[in-house]
Design a protein that fits this description.
It comes from Methanobacterium subterraneum. With 427 residues, the protein is an alpha+beta fold. The protein has helices at 14-32, 47-58, 60-68, 71-78, 84-90, 103-114, 138-147, 158-161, 180-190, 206-229, 268-276, 285-297, 305-323, 327-343, 350-382, 390-410, 417-425; strands at residues 34-37, 41-44, 120-128, 130-133, 151-152, 195-203, 254-257, 260-263, 281-284. It contains 17 helices and 9 strands. The protein has a 5-stranded antiparallel beta sheet. It has a two-stranded antiparallel ribbon with strand order 1-2.
Length: 427
């Protein structure tokens, strides 16, 4: 069993040690870098001036670790991810060893200890430009978002969850502490979004928790979009150039730890304003009632996590497919949903895949499935993007619509993926 992070045997040489040491020294130099002013002599360069250089070097280290250490085995076993925050925390206290030939070893020890940390509590706040045309809908909408591990956050609750920062000028972590005025302005902008979603997640690492919230958000938005666009007629935005079916957007995602904004730091107000100024996605009261009804009768009845994850991942890809402005990639994502639901985690031949599709769509789609399968192959294997038309994408969407609809209705009846697959293959 893998126990510690260490340099791979084939890279145990002075060249590798020096490479690690020099990169770490560059980080220390940026942290302590200063500039002279007429009034104060030498002072630190501000957060914004330092952060870009700091981040550029941090981006190099994961590639070096993956290439020359056993870090991938460690991450796989501990269900962690490598991100800039793991590296940033692991260089703390190492500056005094910058001239030590074993600096790299001390860094790897710190990194190893970082992955041994206990879980931390993270709160995520996600603004969404979603409008529901219904009266007193918040309680019912909350029933839906709860299924996806989220909850609705009222704007008036923001000050209770997020406090203004008070950074220390001598702390290297200033690189990741926002200005108090910037936070206050950003929160004011956030209050203007039609919908704020919140989730509390326990995780050893912030990056791992962030991946989890993105999965939840995209799955929820995918469900909303699916219910709104199910078997809908062809429609897209743009002048035959941008083919996205929806304008539903979210973010930026705020990460809160100890009531402080942990991320993002720079330009938060501008990022929020950019999203706020985008068109809202409007859901009619009638469609919303259908969403609630399906959620209560079917989604909540799926007891097995493996099946729920299968369906929710399909919703996530559905959101991506509807959001994609490129016709061929939107088409391919819709196709991938159908393929993913059929294949799941088992090996299915192309002929078996097509047979299930044809059985599903029966006579009126049999010829078309063969046709767009050839187009799919031209796109994937030959790169023929010009062959994909709007009607091809819509047929690919129709296939995804029908398979997701069947999964929603049927999954509550099964205990394993195998049972679900048997249902598909014997339909």
């Amino acid at each position: 069993m893998v126990s510690k992070i260490k340099i791979l045997k084939e890279f145990e040489n002075d060249s590798t040690y020096t490479e690690f040491n020099e990169i770490l020294k560059d980080l220390f130099s940026i942290i302590s870098k200063g500039k002279k002013t007429e009034s104060d002599g030498e002072i630190r360069v501000g957060i914004k001036e330092r952060q870009e250089d700091y981040k550029n070097i941090l981006d190099i280290i994961p590639n070096l670790l993956e290439q020359k250490t056993n870090i991938e085995s460690i991450l796989y076993r501990k269900k962690c991810i490598m991100d800039m925050f793991a590296i940033s925390d692991s260089i703390k206290g190492l500056k005094e060893y910058k001239d030590d030939a074993k600096l790299y070893a001390k860094f790897l020890d710190n990194l190893d200890n970082y992955f041994r940390l206990d879980n931390s509590d993270y709160t995520f706040i996600v603004p969404v430009n979603l409008v529901i045309e219904a009266d007193d809908y918040l309680d019912d909408l909350n029933k839906i978002v709860n299924v996806f591990g989220l909850e609705i956050l009222k704007p008036t609750a923001l000050p209770r969850i997020v406090k203004l920062p008070t950074p220390s000028a001598d702390n290297p972590n200033d690189l990741f502490v926002p200005d108090s005025d910037d936070v206050e302005k950003a929160l004011k902008v956030m209050e203007d979004f039609p919908l704020l979603l919140k989730a509390d997640i326990q995780a050893r690492m912030r990056g791992y928790a962030h991946n989890e919230i993105i999965k939840r958000i995209k799955s929820f938005l995918g469900y909303i979009v699916y219910m709104d666009k199910y078997l809908a007629s062809s429609e897209y935005f743009g002048d035959f150039d941008e083919y996205n079916i929806i304008n539903l957007n979210y973010g930026p995602v705020l990460i809160i730890k100890d009531k402080m904004i942990n991320w993002p730091i720079l330009g938060l107000e501008d990022k929020l304003k950019t999203k706020l100024n985008l068109p809202n996605e409007v859901i009619s009261g009638k469609k919303f009632n259908s969403m609630l009804d399906v959620c209560e009768k079917f989604l909540k009845e799926i007891k097995k996590e493996t099946l729920k994850n299968l369906l929710f991942r399909s919703f996530s890809v559905y959101y991506a497919a509807c959001s994609d402005k490129t016709l061929e990639y939107s088409f391919l994502k819709f196709w991938n949903i159908t393929e993913y639901l059929i294949k799941s985690n088992s090996r299915v031949s192309d002929s078996e895949l097509l047979n299930v599709m044809k059985q599903f769509f029966q006579n009126y789609l049999t010829m078309r499935v063969d046709f767009i399968y050839e187009k799919r192959n031209d796109l994937v294997h030959k790169g023929f993007t010009e062959s994909i038309t709007d009607s091809d994408r819509n047929l690919s969407k129709l296939m995804a619509d029908l398979f997701i609809n069947d999964a929603i209705i049927q999954m509550k009846n099964f205990n394993t993926r195998g049972e679900y697959e048997q249902h598909l293959f014997h339909k």
